[in-house]
Amino acid sequence: MNYRHAFHAGNFADLVKHAALLWLLAQMQRGGAPLQVIDTHGGSGLYDLRGTEARRSGEAEAGVMRLMAQAEPAAEMTPLVQAVAEANSGGETWLYPGSPWLIARALRPGDRYDVFEMQPDEHGQLSDLMAERKAVATHCADGFAGAVGQMARGARHLVLVDPPFERADDYGRSCDLAAGVLDQDPAATLLIWAPLKDLHTLDVFVRDLEDACDLAPILIAEARMRPLEDPMKMNGCALALINPPDGAQAVLQAICAAVVAEAVGGKAQVWPAG
Ligand SMILES: C[S@@+](CC[C@H](N)C(=O)[O-])C[C@H]1O[C@@H](n2cnc3c(N)ncnc32)[C@H](O)[C@@H]1O
Questions:
Q1: 7 lines ligand 1 (CB under 6 A)
Q2: To test the ligand 1 pocket, which listed residue (2, 4, 5) has its Cβ within 8 A of the most ligand atoms?
């Protein structure tokens, strides 16, 4: 596997995913029931934007650095702005928090977080980062294979599925995982991230997801950074939100619109599948 998230940390796609994740965490923590978050593809958890990888790609410059420079970010982006500022102790932005950092920070007493990362070196960094957190278990294992087995009884479940999509079967395995999670807990909420290259791939994925999720409601959020003319490029990103909390459509629309706002030819749209 070649994928290293350090090249992409803090890019437009991370902003969409992490702003949505923070909103979901807040919504799902409203009731008294304990929340279990399962993150199938965790990465290392915290990224150095001054590092070689981030500087070489320049993706954070166009993403989080631009967001942090905004005088008045959209209200739906504010929780992410606050989290990034906190990760940097209120100073200059040079660290970007990944999903493990954001989720661990949000846990209440009684909540639990299971995070998978298959690459040993990335998992080593993740495990060091989470070492002091008693409610967090890191697993150096395949998240697609292991997630359902970690689901705790009696908790609400939020499952983040964020594969690299280097392998064609990441789409099919995401659908199979959604079916497995819903089989254990039909009320579980899943957030699946996917790249947006061409409409055919998205269309097939959404149809397979509908089949896998049976009658569970699904929202598809698209942040297109440019028209989908070149399928060899990542032209945007999509989120599939299964069992969305109330109000999700408007919030996802605002998040996608905020992220594509400065992209020439950009477009944001959120629609219910099925
Ligand atoms: C897109 S990154 C995750 C980013 C992270 N979720 C975040 O938002 O900060 C995908 C990660 O999944 C890891 N990975 C790839 N295949 C995996 C699998 N089957 N199970 C667990 N981790 C995997 C990669 O090593 C990589 O670190």
A1: no
A2: 5
d(CA 249, CA 8): 26
CATH 3.30.479.30 given to domain 5-272: no
- Cα(72)–Cα(68) distance, integer angstroms: 10
CB atoms within 10 A of CB 160: 28
pLDDT digits (tens, 9 = 90+) for 169-185: 999 999 999 999 999 99
Closest to 253 measured CA to CA, from 239, 233, 234: 239
Give the start-to-end residue ranges of the domains of the chain. 5-272
What is the average pLDDT across 223-252? 94
- Most confident of the ranges 27-31, 57-61, 97-101, 270-274: 97-101
R_g over Cα of the chain: 17
CB of 16 within 8 A of CB of 255? Answer: yes
Structural tokens at position 185: 């807990």
Q: Has this prediction a pTM greater than 0.90?
A: yes
**Tens-digit pLDDT profile for residues 105-138:** 999 999 999 999 999 999 999 999 999 999 999 9
Cα–Cα dist 137/127, whole Å:
8
Model pLDDT, residue 32: 81
Beta 136-139 vs 46-48: how paired, if at all?
A: unpaired
